[in-house]
Amino acid sequence: MTETVVDDRPTLWQPHAGPQTAFLSSSAHEALYGGMAGGGKSDALLYGALRQVNHPRYRALILRRTFPELRELMDRALLTFGQVGGIWTEQSKRWRWRSGATIEFGYCASYSDVLQYQGQEFAYIGYDELGQVPEERVWTYLLSRNRASAPDIRLMMRASANPGGPGHAWVKRRFVDACPEPARVYDVDGTTRAYFPAGLADNPTLLANDPSYAQRLKQLPEMEYRWLALGDWDAGGGVAFPELVKRDRYLIAPFRAVPSHWTVWGGFDWGYNHPWSFGLYTADEDGNAYCLDTATGRQQQPPEIAERILAVIEAHGCQRRVPWIAAGHDVWADVRARTEHVPTLFEQFSKLGLPMVKANISRVAGVQNLRRYLAGNPPRFRWVDTPNNRAVLTTLAGMVSDPNRPEDVLKVDAVAGVGGDDHYDQVRYALAARPAAVQAPSAPTGKLPDRAPHFDFEKGTFAPHAVAATVDQLLKQDAAVHAHRPMIPRGRYRVPGR
Which CATH code for domain 247-432? Predict the structure, then answer.
């Protein structure tokens, strides 16, 4: 007769049915459990690390941006890990099992922090609140540490994140955009990824312990509500340009031909290891601006770049109509040694027929100018609907505000040519060359029109003719005024009465 053994030990933790269970059982190498606050993401990340602790060569690493932020997870582990055989060492922040397996807690806020894990290997790496990491290369470096010394150990990269935060753009691109169908495993860039959206209803424990939590979320401002309560990555808290959530408003059908009287110019952001970006722009007589198309590339020399740019210009019939291309100041950088002559990028592009001018590179002013262009209905700046322009629009829609400088957009570098803010810089340079008016000028009163008869107050534009004549007239008027004013002689003066 076979004896039945009944395990009457209390359950320490059990995943909820739905995305939490699916996340823990996913076969994907990289998996993100993201979305709204309160979905049970941290618990899934923490207890998922326990799955292989019976293997003697298993090592796991659980990370957050700082150790203080890790304290809550470490406290949860203290309540449970010891009951499944773990022994805690405070000094090293490490749990060890009799099998030899370890689970380590650490911090990683920037790329410089990942170097502390150089030469180490972890079969399981979990990062809680990955959206707080501004640089994607932190994650990609950790991928290189995700190794195992035994063939029967499964490798897993796991993360949790809410929309918003400094890493919003790259986290969204890497997981949410790359995995459009929730829970499905996708083959991406030689690895497998999956995204599991979390919802408040997926965490009945929280709802039972705190019934008013959902109601409190409704008191948040609209943007934060969409972020925390709805898990809306398109509206993610902290986005620099929330107007771009409605992307269709900013796309128009291609022009049959650019009208001959419209202004045409370009914007350019240089890069070699980082992508370079060029945009061809035009503006109508009312001051509305349009990006006709975009070109980009990487690890290309000026002749190759010029060929691409000239092809875009020619495709729109704008030969000899581009008087300037607003470019970042690195185009003028002098990289030559004292004894050699190496032409600057400006000199090289000039010989290739590209008239570069120094752009206004002020970041905060550029942000405000772009926002003025995006405002209004219809907006004053739109992209012609091309695949390259859609990529640019996606980049800008994912930009987030700098947490240390809220009036600026967070600087994000590309990793291996992917991501980055190069498209954004190019757009900023181009539009800064034609600043958007704060508001349309109102009709003047009195004799003001006589001082600027060439100004069309309804359109808010100057007629190109008569400008020189008007300036000459004004100078003569000023000279006549000053002729009747006594000149104050140079020297020391005594204040009357003193």
Answer: 3.30.420.280
